[in-house]
Structure to design on (350 residues):
């Protein structure tokens, strides 16, 4: 495949409104729909020959970005597909999924085939390729717990590289790819899924499952039950992006020092907090926002969901600036009341 073949497939002034879960109006200067792994080297040559490499932007499911009205970049939309079982050992499965696979569909696919271990992460929006970037997590499970390796394509060297779990530098909603991944496109992710499997029910919403099984024994809880419970809870708490634009949880749960935590508890006895292994405390960002009176409030065309204060929504034709102004107003109020800085999870693309 040649760069001239790539050129014939490039779109101009492409609408991205349907490619981001916030549903904001956005148009890309140039756009390429990446569907095959074999296109990557020719695409790299095309970008270099036209000095577009530094102005390229990789888009997945659009669930963790806030796009500007005009994106003056070359957008590469990762639509690579494919799921395969590459190893089946006595104590684990190795399952590889292409970066463009829809995350929730992949979780459901694994569940159907008895490859368990991803159930706690059901219904998280986005793609497989975006999962390690953000180290997505929910209900006591994170990608770092199941990621075996990540295959990437480096547009600078025009080479395929493999990152081990350790090389991904996973942290809370963070990874190597989020900071030093410029020019890297995630081709596939390989997951190491436990065999045999045991339900992870650390959160109250999941512990309710114990009421339905004999002897309240976690050993009797099935992967299907966990999957269904997670989906049920998320559908209740979080709005469907297909119905109202949003990016899921907008702010990270902040982590504060023991001293700061003690000070906060002295004035807010009901403060939800979770002690971390290093002695610090993780706070519930939703609670902080709710205490500032933001749940259900609107600012222009953007607002805070009426049921979940951690979710910002597109009320009616919001653009990136509307969401930015709302987010900054929330950050200011939380800081003024609690002396806590909230950090957005989604990236404001410029």
């Amino acid at each position: 495949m040649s760069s001239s073949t790539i050129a014939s497939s490039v779109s101009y002034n492409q609408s991205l409104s349907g490619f981001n879960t916030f549903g904001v109006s956005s148009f890309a200067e140039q756009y390429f729909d990446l569907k095959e792994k074999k296109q990557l080297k020719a695409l790299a040559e095309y970008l270099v020959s036209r000095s577009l490499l530094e102005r390229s932007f990789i888009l997945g499911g659009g669930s963790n970005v806030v796009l500007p009205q005009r994106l003056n970049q070359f957008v590469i939309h990762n639509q690579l597909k494919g799921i395969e079982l590459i190893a089946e050992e006595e104590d684990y499965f190795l399952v590889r999924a292409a970066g463009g696979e829809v995350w929730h569909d992949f979780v459901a696919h694994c569940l159907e085939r008895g490859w368990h271990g991803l159930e706690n992460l059901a219904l998280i929006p986005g793609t497989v390729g975006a999962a390690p970037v953000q180290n997505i997590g929910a209900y006591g499970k994170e990608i770092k717990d199941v990621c075996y390796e990540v295959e990437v394509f480096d547009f600078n060297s025009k080479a395929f590289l493999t990152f081990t779990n350790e090389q991904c530098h996973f942290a809370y909603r963070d990874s190597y790819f989020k900071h030093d991944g410029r020019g890297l496109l995630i081709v596939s992710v390989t997951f190491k899924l436990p065999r045999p499997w045991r339900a992870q029910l650390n959160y109250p919403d999941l512990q309710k499952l114990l009421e339905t099984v004999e002897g309240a024994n976690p050993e009797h809880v099935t992967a299907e039950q966990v999957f269904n419970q997670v989906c049920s809870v998320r559908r209740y708490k979080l709005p469907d992006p297909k119905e109202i634009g949003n990016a899921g949880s907008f702010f990270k749960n902040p982590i504060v020092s023991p001293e700061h935590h003690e000070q906060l508890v002295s004035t807010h006895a009901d403060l939800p907090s979770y002690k971390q292994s290093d002695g610090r405390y993780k706070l519930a960002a939703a609670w902080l926002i709710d205490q500032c009176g933001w749940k259900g409030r609107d600012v222009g065309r953007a607002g805070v969901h009426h049921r979940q204060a951690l979710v910002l929504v597109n009320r009616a034709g919001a653009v990136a600036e509307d969401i930015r102004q709302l987010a900054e107003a929330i950050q200011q109020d939380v800081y003024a009341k609690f002396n806590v800085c909230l950090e957005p999870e989604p990236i404001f693309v410029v």
The first strand starts at residue 11 and ends at 15. The chain has a mean pLDDT of 95.
